[in-house]
Amino acid sequence: MILVVFTTAGVQGEKDTSGQTFLTVMTCNIGDLAGGQRIALEMVVDYLKETGVPDVLFLQEVENKKEAECFSQKLGLPYFVFLNDSKKDIGIAILSKRPLSNEDQIYFKASERGAGAIAADVMVGQAKVLVVNVHLDSVVPVTIAQGKVAVDLPSILKFVKTEIWGDSVRSRSAGELIYWLGEKKAEHVIMGGDFNTVPFSKTIRIIGSVFDDALWPTFSYFTGTYKKLDFPVSPRIDFLFFSPNLARRDASVLPMSQGDHLPVRASIGVL
């Protein structure tokens, strides 16, 4: 794991009229499976600046440590931690305006690609919050046709049935994730990432037994975040979760992105 610090200046955070301190967080998968080529870093940077750089940014499909460092510098998020998949040359990163400390990681034993999660502490007002980035295994193999992931109704129904009632590498990894976080005994947790499954799946129910979905209840709850599926309905596979003792002020799925995922953004504060 890499922790890089470019400045020691802290950020106090935004307070509302009640005096609560809120943290803006966003999760964004910057890859593009259907496109066949990586998106230029500058295009992603320009897009993230246009949407508004959050206090904490969870990125998935970061090419390497160097790319994570470039995002950190160009976005004005001076603190970051990065974790490579153990079996694949790609990774996840947490970028932050505030200092990150006590960084930790886990590789899921159930994962077929060596996927994991990365975590670090950040101060929100006077409270310590554990921020966690996750990227669970995708459904493989997939067929790419005309720039989209090709699926049909029978395959969709089989996937939904398995995800809701069956066991999968994602649900097993979610169990490992919840156990790992439980061992940390963190009072406040904000978690985001690409979970490669849908609301109400076994994976999301496991996580939802401990944490709240930032998009519930909002109009964005059923908004799809994977936009290059060759099917009339887009699935939501990107999530932000938070401890029930935190407060969500707003949350939404952003309507545009440079890759094949739409980001999820929320403002979360300490009660």
Helix content: 10-25%
* SSE topology string: EEEHEHEEEEEEEHHEHEEEEE
Quickly name the level 1 CATH class. Answer: Alpha Beta
Number of domains: 1
Number of helices: 5
**Rg measurement, Å:** 17 Å
Give the CATH architecture. 4-Layer Sandwich
Question: Under CATH, the topology is which?
Answer: Deoxyribonuclease I, Chain A
Work out the strand percent. Answer: 35-45%
The dominant shape is globular
Low-confidence stretches: 1-12
Compute the number of strand runs.
Answer: 17
Largest sheet, strands/sense/barrel: 8 strands, mixed
CATH homology superfamily: Endonuclease/exonuclease/phosphatase
Rounded average pLDDT: 90
Structural class: alpha+beta
Distance between the termini: 31 Å
Q: What does it look like?
A:
There is one protein chain. The protein has about 270 residues and is an alpha+beta fold. It has one domain: Deoxyribonuclease I, Chain A, CATH 3.60.10.10. The protein is built from five helices and 17 strands. The strands form three sheets. Strands 1, 2, 3, 4, 5, 6, 16 and 17 form an eight-stranded mixed beta sheet that branches. Helix 1 packs parallel to helix 2 and helix 4 packs parallel to helix 5. The N terminus is likely disordered.
